[in-house]
Every structure is written in C-alpha cells, then in structure tokens.
Amino acid sequence: MIVKNIIQRIRPQRPHQRSDNVRRFYMMIVTLSILVIWRLLTTVGVNKPSLTLNDIRKCATDNLDADLSFLDSAKPIHTDEFFERRERLARALVASNADAFILEPGYTSQYYGNISQTDWEPWEPEERPFLMLILPEFSQSGEMSAKTAFLAPHFEEGRVRMLGIPSREDELDIVIWEEHWNPYATLLASHIFAGFNNTTKRRAPKLVVDEEIRDFISRGLANAGFETVGLTPEVELVRQIKSPAEVEILRAVNTGTVAAVRAMRPCLVSGLTEDEVQYILNEVLIFIGFDLFFNIVLFEEDGALPHGGFIVGTKKATEDTMIVIDVGAHYLGYSSDICRSFFIDPAQRDVANLFTGWLGLLGQRSSRKAQDISYLGLREEKLKVWDIVLVAQSAAAAVLKPNNTAADVDIAARAVIEDAGYGEHFTHRLGHGIGIKAHESPYLNKWNTEVQLRPGMIFTDEPGIYIEGKFGVRHEDVYLVKRNEEAELLTGRRAIGPYDP
Ligand SMILES: *[C@@H]1O[C@H](CO)[C@@H](O)[C@H](O)[C@H]1NC(C)=O
Ligand SMILES: *[C@@H]1O[C@H](CO)[C@@H](O)[C@H](O)[C@H]1NC(C)=O
Ligand SMILES: *[C@@H]1O[C@H](CO)[C@@H](O)[C@H](O)[C@H]1NC(C)=O
Ligand SMILES: *[C@@H]1O[C@H](CO)[C@@H](O)[C@H](O)[C@H]1NC(C)=O
C-alpha cells in the first residue's frame, strides 16, 4: 500500500525530481533494513525469540555449577540410626502406656525401617496387610530395648526378607498368615503377644496405630481384640526431633532447592510461560541430583491462590510479573519445601530497544497516560507487600525457640501482616514440620497452643499475602530450633529483594 501511494505521488513530477525521490526512497529502505538487522543482532542473548529453552536451562545450570558444595555434608542415614529411632520409640511407648506401635509401608516405615511405599507397591499388596511392629522388650534385669516384628502373607515371606530392612537380629521376626486366616487374630495369638491373655495379664494389648495406616486394617485390629489408639504426643515427638544426620540432609536439599531457583532467575526472559519456567527449574533440580517432587510456578494473579488453581501454565512472564515458585525436591529420602517470589531482570536497554520503544511510545502516548497511575500503583504495591511478608517471616523466625508454642510462631508473623492492613490476605497457617515428608507435625497455626517447640524440630516459615485477581507473595525458608540460640536457617540464605530472592 505505502509503496503504491509513493509511486502514485511521484508520477506527475519532473524526471530529475523523480530520480531524487526514488533515491531517497531506496535510502530509506536500506536504513530501515540496517536497523532491523542490527536489532536482531544486538538482541541475541537478551530476548526470548533468539533463546531456546535449552539455552536458558544451560544458563541456569552453569550458574549453579559454580558451587554444589551444599551437598557435601549430607550422608545417607546409617543403619545404627534406624535402631536408635526404634529405641526412642520404645521409650515413648512405655511413657504412653502402650504395648506396641504398628505401621504400614509408607513414610513412617521409611523412618523406622527404611522401607518406603514404593519398595512395597510393586508387589500390589492392596488388601493384604504387611505390617511392621515396634515394641518395648524387657530383659531379666529390667533393661528395655526395642523389638521389631512383622506380619506378612505367608507366600510373600521370602520377598519381605529380601527387602533389606535394617535389623539387629540375624533373621527378621515375621508372623505369617495364610490366605484363609484372619491376619489380625493371627497376630494377636502369635508369640509376639504371648505375654497377654494369661492369668496375670488378662488384657488386650494396646497398639499405637500410625496415622498412615489404612482404616480397614485399624478396624481389623480392633475387631480381633487389640486396643487401638492414635499417635500420642510422646510417639509423635520421636520423629519431630531430627538427628544431626537428618539436619544435614534437610539442609542440603533445602539449600539446593533455593540455589536452583536463584541460579535460574537471571536467565529468565519475558515471554516464557509458567510451564516453561517449571520445566527449566525441574531440569536444574535433576542436574543437582535431586528427585523431582512438586514444582508450582505461578505468575501474577495465578499466584494469588497459594497452591495455584485451575492454572493452565500458559501465562507469559513480563518484566512486571510477580513470579511465585513453591517447590520441593527429594534427596536421600528427605524433602525440601521452599518458596520464592521475584521479578525477572529487565531486558538490556540497547539503542535498538530504545528506538522501538520510542516508536511504541509515539503510538501509545495518549492512550497510556490514563493507565500509568494504576500501573505504577500495582508495582508499588508488589514491592510493599514483598517487604511486609519478609518482615513477617523474620518476626516468626525470632520466636522459633524452645518452649514457645507452635501458635506463638504463627501469631508473630500474623501480627506483622495484620498491622500492615493485609490480615485477611494471609489465608493459611504459617508453616509446618518437615522431614521425610514435606508436611509433618507439629503444625504452626494460631490454634495449636498445646505443642511446645523443642530443640531439633525443623519447620518451614512461610507467610504470604494473596490479593485475588492481582498477585501473591510468599517467602518460605526452613529453620532448625536450637537449644540456646536463634533458630538456624537451613536454606542457605534468605531472600534479599525481588531481584535477589
Ligand atoms: C536404605 O534404603 C536405600 C534405598 O533402598 C539404600 O540405598 C540404603 O542403603 C538403605 N540403608 C540402610 C541403612 O540399609
Ligand atoms: C503372663 O504375662 C506376664 C506379662 O507378660 C508374664 O510375666 C507371665 O509370665 C505370663 N504368665 C504365663 C503363665 O504365661
Ligand atoms: C484369651 O483367652 C481366652 C480364655 O482362655 C480365650 O477364649 C481367648 O480366645 C483368648 N484370646 C486370644 C486373643 O488369644
Ligand atoms: C524449657 O522448659 C523445660 C522444662 O519444661 C526446661 O527444662 C528448659 O530449660 C526450658 N528451656 C528454655 C530454653 O527455656
């Protein structure tokens, strides 16, 4: 169209004027072409069209490669530690007036027996109970030790022995049941509970039933004649207090997960989608040697729902997008759970950029003016909220001390957010214990006034502010409660600012 108009306009003109105009026209084309090529060249490495996901992944892993020393202090849990855990549990059972602890394959059996649900799942046990029991046993001289026993289907006995469950005994003590027997009655009548139901001790054995056990098993035990109770505070405390080896693994996996986000951030550019950022972060976590667990990447208003919602993952980042990433990985059987809220870096403002910027401004000047006020207001609110959440997180960390209650910690953070006028936007509890599972007891909420913190407990500290339809901000770090000092950060370093999370 433009070319045709120009030709039409120059047609009636005199010959030498005409060649002048044509020359000017060609000069303009050449100049524009040079600008376009120059722009393409100068934006290499800055903007998305010239970067592949692979380039960004490599940028992130290169950033990380500089330092993987956070892995150094983490060692696999030693065999002896499994025995120590069972000894502590046996003492807790005595303190709870209980006779045994009973559990199914899962997180708890990973803690006491190094058997995870995935170890057992390929066997498809489904309706056939495979149970682990830990019970206090007394020697002639009255000394207590922890006895470990199992209940397993007869035809699976050989495979149970092959699981490699750490044991002090030469052979695992397995009570077997045939397919046509009642497994729970078999257990009650077995040598494990021989001391019961005799003339001097005519009472049902009292079992502390793990919280992960399936309901039909719990009812089966009760119907067969066991007394069943839920977890007692003493039994819960065993796993809540982390050993030095656990502390070091949790430090490694949580520090590494934060390091992955931090290494990735400077590589991110406008135009990337939530799904693409999730993919890149997964790649960085795999590069470290972590197993993927969860990875929630939320942009702008998507981040106003703490765990996302019906997010499709196609929202694109801009330089003003508040990005919230809640991510956890597994390492040596332990979980991380951290959250960072940040902006990507602005693209480098080269001359070509400014040039296109001006062109854009010329076209938009009149229409943009009216939006500027709300635009600046939103950005300022993001920065303000980011700071408030950080102050709330510090306030909670300051009271993560022995003998304070779980509620105290939540209330300390909540007070900061309420004072800033955002109380109704802090919609979840402050945090939770963390270990083999990402979420473990005790839970830090303002109602939990019963539980006192103890040295060795490890918690997430994760206040947030969520403004529906706009954006959300959450900072999540992991802390170890110490005996006589401030809680110790297990995530390496906290966020400093929205460009340095
Ligand atoms: C626990 O299980 C893991 C995975 O199967 C294994 O690598 C490790 O050696 C076991 N630990 C002990 C103490 O048996
Ligand atoms: C009955 O059980 C008690 C407690 O375990 C034990 O000390 C006692 O020897 C048992 N008596 C008989 C007759 O088995
Ligand atoms: C307990 O003893 C009584 C009487 O000896 C017997 O009928 C019952 O079956 C026993 N229960 C178990 C679970 O062994
Ligand atoms: C916490 O309370 C226990 C007793 O319940 C006490 O022995 C301990 O010294 C207290 N610790 C602190 C840090 O106050």
TrEMBL record:
UniProt keyword terms in alphabetical order: Membrane, Transmembrane, Transmembrane helix
Gene3D superfamilies: Creatinase/methionine aminopeptidase superfamily, Creatinase/prolidase N-terminal domain
Domain Peptidase M24 residue range list: 250-353, 381-482
Keyword set includes Transmembrane: yes
Domain of life: Eukaryota
Keyword Membrane among record annotations: yes
SUPFAM superfamilies linked: Creatinase/aminopeptidase
A Pfam family of this chain: Peptidase_M24
Chain ranges passing through the membrane: 21-41
Name of this chain's protein: Peptidase M24 domain-containing protein
Organism: Xylaria hypoxylon
